[in-house]
Amino acid sequence: MTGTASPAEAADRVVGAVLSGLQHGSDQGIVVDSPPGAGKSTLVVRVAGELAAAGEPAILIAQTNEQVDDLINRLAATGAHRQIGRLSAVDYVPSPRVAQHQVVTVGTRVRDLDGSTVIVGTAAKWATVPEGTWPWAIVDEGYQMRSDALLRVANRFQRALFVGDPGQLDPFSTVESERWVGLTWDPMQSAMAVVLRHNPGLPLHRLPVSWRLPASAVPAVARAFYPFTGFRSGTGSTARRIALEAQRSAARSAHDMARSALDNVARSALDDAVELAASRGWALYELPARHTVRTDPEAIAACAALATRLLDRRAVAYSESAPSGRPVSPDRIAIGVAHRDQAAAIRALLPPSAAAVTVDTANRLQGREYDVTIVLHPLSGRRDATAFHLETGRLCVLASRHRHACIVVARAGIQELLDAHPGNTAVHLNVPVTFPDGWEANHAMLAHLERYRVIAG
Amino acid sequence: MSTLVALARALAFVQGVAQPITMVRHIHCAERPMVFIPLALAGEANAPLAAMVGDDPDRPRLLVVPQPRNRDLRFAFAAELASILVPHFERFQTVTEVAAPDRTGQARWRSTDAPQVVVANPAAAGFVRLFGRSTRFRRADGPYAVDARVPVLGQWLTFFAERAEYPGSSLLVTLTDALAMHWATGQSALEDTHLPALLAWIEPPEGRDGATAAMLAEDPGIWPPAGPATDPDFDNRVLAPAIEAYAAATTPDAGTLAECQASGALRDAVASQLEPTWRLMWRAIALLRALPPGVRVADRWAADRDAYTEFAARLEGSGLPQPRRDGAVAAARRLHRLERALAAFTVQRAYDDPLIMAEYRLTGEAFVATVLEADRLRIDTSGRRRTLRPRVTVTTTDPAKPEVGSTWISPARPAQRARAVEVVVARGAETTVVLELSGGMGRALTPLPGSVPDAGERLCYTSLADQYVPPGDFPAPEETPWTHGGPPAPASLDAVEGQAAVASRRGDDLPRDDLPRDDLPRDDPAGEEWS
After folding, report:
1. Ordered strands of the A118-122 beta sheet
2. What sign does the CA torsion over B44, B48, B52, B55 have?
3. pTM attached to this predicted model
4. What is the C-alpha separation between B488 and B478, in angstroms, rounded?
């Protein structure tokens, strides 16, 4: 990798190359791949600022309203823009983080936003803009965007910067899409894939440093999900730590909550898992092997109990941004699952003190960041390993949202399940092979977690 | 598989008979469906061997290719099939009605009825698609010329196969899929694609349970496979000798007695494989017809008739065959249309059918409630204008826990929105919700009779909305952006999208693959004998 340069220098070098390509290059597009938490948004904001300074108005295309509002908040904070346009649907109500900025103008039509140095909107909204061409577009989260969504907006710009994380979930559709497999413009691919297949010569940059993931997480995540490109951690192995301020026994009374549901969960094993994660960044909380329904009551209870236990033990996170420590409050904890019904079941079990803990599916956790995550393994308790549950992106998103520690809850026997279900997806002509495949990534991740196993009950 | 369907399958297994999983029929049943049973020759992809076809259960037409390896005979088969199907497909164009104007305000007409093709199983639907592909690029002149109706048949079959991809469409009905949509059996989904076994579960004979009846139905000696693949035992013992006998009897002077006898024997052999399926298919159609149709089936059939009318007009206009592959814009458009059709079908099915709505009640996306009290004449005076905003208090024992501010719709009054303004979750399983109604009550400040539910009424509220979503905008094919390979070469614009560009080339060469790249396989339609 980048030899002896410090993480900051290595990252600056890539950002510098992107910016110089923007100013002096003649390519129609520039592609930037970014591992989790590598400063993708920072790059987007910086590029928008440079383009505004050069007098070249740009449009910014994000995928969700949430992402648009986040970007606007950060764009406004730089002070580099005379006016920021927020292109939005008729029923959009500006969120507080957008409304607080004087420079932001909200409009439903481009003509309402004249004079903006940058106009931000979702891909769906941009698709309704029938005319106008801007010299530059910045497409954020290009791996979440579907090829057909890009097709609808691509005539709005001449040149574009595409930014995204290749480890995200692939776009999907509920209808049969086999008839397009093998076409270079298959509408089911990601926007990034379609651009690169038609323009293989575009410059491709990779952000080399994850500022989010701790040093304990980077080797495992990089090996499992980014085996050929890799990346490094922005912080050293001692920069991040979690201290548990309450003792194992002392914390009991804090919430003698939801006992009926959680009583079965062995408390000492919970404490072992929380302590292991606090000290080493990972824990695998392993339940006995069993085939279960999707909302496996024991696994669901374990997820809720681990979150509660973490709060009971009054975890405090020390890091480069909070050297004197910051409590791991409920809003700094996320529980990630594969299905919505699992999320609903976990939410129902959380006691009021933990109600602010985020419980969501991998799709919705994309692009978000927490101190500690608790992950219900997508293959836990299953009889089969379907393409949905094997998808590389799903596990990657779940395993890369944390700044400090990640606790995985799973039933034993996933390795055997994987071995019994080798990948059987059809191989099609003229479809580029993507690595790693989900089967391989799942095995790599489990082999890693093996060393952090706590056996429950 | 949803929870209720899983339950129905378990019940079917225990009780030994298929269980209904819907209360109404969700497909359209035509008055005179065109039943089509193709058989293919083993060992060669999609080579037609025979077909039984017709719209009258008592008068099936049998078509046989006596020597399936002979290309001329294959196209003679295609021409004979075309002489039956094409006039049937065209017949429905003559009577039209006025339809709602299109997006540009242009007046539209649609046929009052449309042809419906019924096949036995997904493999037969696949045969329709592939046979359409192998015939629609044929030409009536030049080398390997075929009967002029053959390419027209190919375009029709392609139209039916492509329309069948639309969720909720009934132009091409696959019987095993249609039956499995309405009944759950105690066997696997794969086994459900075997028509005799599926029907054995739905209607087991007296004194037998479904599992036994299905097992007996799997004996190809009693129930030959519904095609297109034939029973290997039949192939070896009956078909191969019969074809050999025919080949031996064929002499340069056609029509000898021996040849007639050999071809007659072959026809009888093939008919024995087709007739049981023919009877089963009409039985299955009768079963479906006996179900009461869902309210919104007619709307979807109207969309099918629109598609039919449009295609018939296109066939008379440019007459260019559908391209082999979708271009970048065509692919994105089609995906968009399919997704819209699926979204609409999902909602409409639930609106039409309490048993399907029950699935959403389990997941909290719908609830059935009793109206406790109704404030019919409530006027909201908080805004600049006085508006009619009745409130109803309803109570439910369903698992749904509506959030304050969420919007609900009752399938009984689809134009009306109900916003939850107050939710009380009682200790038991009961939830009381105060709903504020808007829309669907007329223009006055008093609601039209029956537009506001009365106390005591039991009704369903769901968060699924059957609302019109305007179609998305896509660039024209000649404006395909650089991200998607740029505009295709002019000659390769496909017939639908590039009509302007292609119109001037009418009678010109067939449309080529719209793939401007050289590393992809490309076949020259005119030189290709059989694809």
Report:
1. A104-107, A84-87, A118-122, A58-62, A134-139, A157-164, A29-33, A204-206
2. positive
3. 0.88
4. 7
- Band of residue B254 on the pLDDT scale cut at 50, 70, 90: low
Confidence of residue B508 (pLDDT cuts 50, 70, 90): very low
H or E element at residue A358: strand A358-361
Residue B133's SS3 state is: helix
Using a CB-CB cut-off of 8 Å, the residues of chain B touching A195 are 483
Stretch A444-450: mean pLDDT: 95
Cα B45 to Cα B66: distance, rounded to the nearest angstrom: 17
Given pLDDT bands bounded at 50, 70 and 90, which one contains residue A249?
low
pLDDT the model gives residue B491: 55
Residue B1 binned pLDDT confidence (cut-offs 50, 70, 90): low
The chain A residue lying nearest B340, using CA atoms, is A175
Burial code (b: 16+ CB inside 10 Å, e: under 16) for B285-321 equals bebbeebebbebbeebbbbbbbbbbebbebbeebebb
CA atoms of A432 and A428, how far apart (whole Å): 9
CA atoms within 13 A on the CB side of B504: 5
**B481/A151 touch (CB, cutoff 8 Å), yes or no:** yes
What secondary structure letter does DSSP report for B239?
A: I
Band (A297; pLDDT cuts 50, 70, 90): very high
What is the SS3 string spanning chain A? CCCCCCHHHHHHHHHHHHHHHHHHCCCCEEEEECCCCCCHHHHHHHHHHHHHHCCCCEEEEECCHHHHHHHHHHHHHHCCCCCEEEECCCCCCCCHHHHCCCCEEEECCHHHHCCCCEEEEEHHHHCCCCCCCEEEEEECCCCCCEHHHHHHHHHHEEEEEEEECCCCCCCCCCCCCHHHCCCCCCCCCEHHHHHHHHCCCCCEEECCEECCCCCCCHHHHHHHHCCCCCCEECCCCCCCEEEECCCCCHHHHHHCCCHHHHCCCCHHHHHHHHHHHHHHCEEEEEECCCCCCCCCHHHHHHHHHHHHHHHHCCEEEEECCEEEEEECCHHHEEEEECCHHHHHHHHHHCCHHHCCCEEEEHHHHCCCCEEEEEEECCCCCCCCCCHHHHCHHHHHHHCCCEEEEEEEEEECCHHHHHHHCCCCCCCCCCCCCCCCCHHHHHHHHHHHHHHHEEECC
Cα–Cα distance between B108 and B461 in angstroms, integer?
A: 35
With contacts defined as CB-CB under 8 Å, which chain A residues touch B327? 185
The tokens for B431 are 């939830």
Size of interface A-B (CB pairs under 8 A): 87
A10, pLDDT greater than 80? yes
Min Cα distance A2 → chain B (Å) is: 31
What is the pairing mode between strands B61-64 and B48-54?
A: antiparallel
pLDDT band for B504, please (50, 70, 90 cuts): very low
Q: What is the pLDDT of residue A131?
A: 87
Closest of B282, B289, B226, B283 to residue B27, by C-alpha: B289
B345: chain A residues, CB-CB within 8 Å: none
Tokens representing A35 are 């591992």
Mean pLDDT of B210-218: 93
Lowest mean pLDDT among A6-20, A37-51, A347-361, B508-522: B508-522
- What is chain B's length? 531
Contact A151 B332 (CB under 8 A): yes
Q: In this complex, is the C-beta atom of B465 within 8 Å of any C-beta atom belonging to chain A?
A: no
- Per-residue model confidence as pLDDT tens digits over B474-500: 999 999 999 999 888 765 444 443 333
Residue-averaged pLDDT of chain B: 87
**B164 in contact with A, Cβ within 8 Å:** no
> Which chain B residues are within 8 Å of A61, Cβ to Cβ?
none
